[in-house]
Amino acid sequence: MKITHQLLFSSWLLLGVTVAPSQVLAGPFVPQGQFVQPAPGPGIPGPKNVPGKEYSDRFDKDTQEPPVSDPEQNIYWDGHGGGQDAFDYSGSRPGDTDPAREADALANHGDALFWDVIANRAALLFSTGSTTLLLPGDSRAAVYNASSAYNQLGIHEASVLYESIGGGIDFWAKPPQIDQAGVNDLDGLEVWGPGPADPTPNDADMYSLLDDPTINGTRTSVWYYNPITQISNSYITGLPR
Q: Tens digits of per-residue pLDDT, 80-116?
């Protein structure tokens, strides 16, 4: 799982690769493996061995060649630079008049290892846009700023990192492993879904929209998407703006 917006959705800000989508074609999805099942432990298997990886970019895009802007589209990725379109949440919210919102957090309703991450029995996957995300006095700053991997600006901003249960930080997936066409700003990540042999491998059925917009009079932080009906319903609401 990944912590995000940050913990129901496990985190997620993967920033900008220097290769523009118009310069490189998206790679085809090719199952990797050998796949393993989620289990508590000090580390996490590599991206090729973790099934069911999905991400959303900012701005949302699809896997055409070259990729084009596609609001609320997330991408199923193989850990070797290939991907294919996964869920597209646009048009799934009855009464929503904006056809071009931005998905910025992903999860599954079961969220594997969620409680193990909370209890520090499992490693944490995370990403961020900048070290400036940490405010002065934040107790995590000493850990992050001491990590040479975390401070490789221009690299960590386009990568997924992990924090072991002992507190060490390192790369888990770098841009070429995530999307060979380039990652602009990975702001949503979900892992440990079904493997590619499953008839419905996509399982990011929980998502958030940028800025938690008010729709039909209700400000919603988390939406539940039913892949059968293709309808989204408000799941966690906030105070109206």
A: 999 999 999 999 999 999 988 999 899 999 988 999 9
Output phi, psi for 235, to 5 deg.
-115, -45
Q: Which of 29-38, 88-97, 127-136, 160-169 has the lowest mean pLDDT?
A: 127-136
Q: What angle do CA 224, 228, 232 make, to 5 degrees?
A: 25
The CA distance from 194 to 188, in Å, is 18
Structure tokens at 49: 């061995």
Q: Which one, of 51, 61, 50, lies nearest residue 84 by Cα?
A: 61
Mean pLDDT of the chain: 80
CA torsion through residues 132, 153, 83, 112, sign? negative
User: Residues for the chain: how many in total?
Assistant: 241
Q: What angle do CA 226, 229, 234 make, to 5 degrees?
A: 45
pLDDT for 132 equals 44
Alpha-carbon span 189 to 120, nearest angstrom: 20
Tell me the two tokens of residue 96.
Answer: 């929503």
Question: Strand runs (DSSP E) across the chain, as ranges?
Answer: 14-15, 53-56, 73-77, 83-88, 103-107, 124-126, 160-163, 169-173, 185-186, 188-190, 206-209, 214-215, 218-226, 231-238
- Residue written as tokens 């892992």? 191
The three-point CA angle 128-233-4 to 5° equals: 15
